[in-house]
Design brief:
The chain is mainly alpha-helical. The protein folds into three domains: 65 residues, no CATH class; 147 residues, Up-down Bundle (Four Helix Bundle (Hemerythrin (Met), subunit A)), CATH 1.20.120; 85 residues, no CATH class. 63% of the residues lie in helices and 3% in strands. It contains 16 helices and four strands. The chain has a two-stranded parallel ribbon. A two-stranded antiparallel sheet has the order 3-4. α3 crosses α11, α10 packs across α11 and α15 packs antiparallel against α16.
């Protein structure tokens, strides 16, 4: 319908086509999940005005929209998830840490955040106002310092501004810590999508900190509802980035580890580097398989786009990996853009 296009609400930073498609989906089903909305606004700045506009538009269309997230006091379900999926939820597979250490780390983290009391809405508003005053005081101090007037300002005024700044820092810390359990409740719903559980917590915590900085208590939002948008957006972005990561199959990792172990043993026995044939005889693999496995990087994952092309090859070899790595280095990517190294 041509008139439908003019009825599409304008959401800053969001494609009109994506908005129209989301609205059509909501009309057809009568409801939308927060995840579906976050997928559309993943790259947008989540201002209070944008969130209010989304709510208003969905309500006008008669689309049910549930934003609530239940905050759980304990983390036993999360711990069961860690134990049930040992390969997916290892923190750093290349370090050789076991399942027990991952579960212990998760248990310790959940225990620590469980000691922090949840806040009432009145306390959230008070803390948010304290953060706003602290930010304002910090800006005033910075302006005075930049203008060279800090020393000429009355000592009592400078002390007042610094006191407000410290109070704002404490309020920011308390509001963040009190909502770490909210991050856990949101993050665990994204398990099994390519990121370890503790990484999901970390990404969600970054979104929470962003929400703390952006929250305006005068807009009428409950902080936990507002923060949920930022937490989900941060996690969704991280998962989208991870989806561009190339994963080495688990059976390849096991075979590669076996080859490396045998290679090390034979080097000690023979006091020289063993040949592919000698390794193949000990590992019950074909020599060409040993040669190919020797070419895989030791990390299970890599974000390097050049590596993606190399990893798709049926028979990757070490020279091809080195050539690919060198080509990628010549692109002068920013440091840290690739997590794999040909070691």
């Amino acid at each position: 319908m041509p008139e439908a296009a003019s009825e599409v609400p304008a959401w800053p930073g969001v494609s009109e086509f994506e908005v129209a498609r989301l609205i059509r989906r909501g009309r057809a089903r009568g409801r939308l999940t927060l995840d579906e909305v976050i997928d559309v606004v993943c790259d947008a700045e989540l201002t209070s005005e944008l969130i209010s506009g989304i709510r208003t538009a969905l309500q006008a269309e008669g689309i049910e929209f549930d934003e609530t997230v239940a905050v759980e006091a304990d983390g036993e379900e999360v711990l069961r998830l860690v134990r049930a999926r040992p390969l997916e939820y290892r923190i750093r597979p290349q370090t050789g840490t076991g399942q027990g250490s991952t579960a212990d780390s998760t248990r310790l983290y959940l225990h620590e955040i469980g000691q922090v009391a949840l806040l009432t809405q009145a306390e959230e508003v008070e803390l948010a106002n304290g953060i706003t005053e602290g930010n304002r005081a910090e800006t005033e101090l910075a302006d005075l310092a930049a203008a060279g007037e800090l020393d000429r300002t009355a000592g009592s005024e400078v002390a007042r501004l610094r006191r407000l700044q410290r109070r704002g820092d404490r309020a920011r810390d308390r509001l963040t810590r009190a909502n770490l359990r909210l991050v856990v409740s949101v993050a665990k719903k994204y398990g099994g999508r390519g990121l370890p559980l503790l990484d999901l917590f970390q990404e969600g915590n970054l979104g929470l900190m962003r929400a703390v900085e952006k929250f305006d208590a005068n807009k009428g939002f409950k902080f936990s509802t507002y923060a949920t948008w930022w937490i989900r957006q941060a996690i969704t972005r991280a998962i989208a980035d991870q989806s561009r990561t190339i994963r080495i199959p688990v059976h390849k990792v096991d075979a590669m580890n076996r080859v490396l172990r045998v290679q090390r043993d034979l080097s000690q026995e023979l006091e020289r580097d063993p040949s592919h044939n000698e390794i193949a005889e000990r590992t019950v693999l074909r020599p060409d398989e040993v040669r190919d496995l020797s070419g895989w990087p030791r990390s299970r994952t890599t974000r390097c786009p050049w590596t993606r092309r190399w990893a798709k090859s049926r028979t990757p070899t070490w020279p091809s990996w080195c050539r690919t790595w060198e080509r990628w280095r010549q692109t002068k990517r920013p440091p840290g853009a690739c997590s794999a190294t040909p070691s």
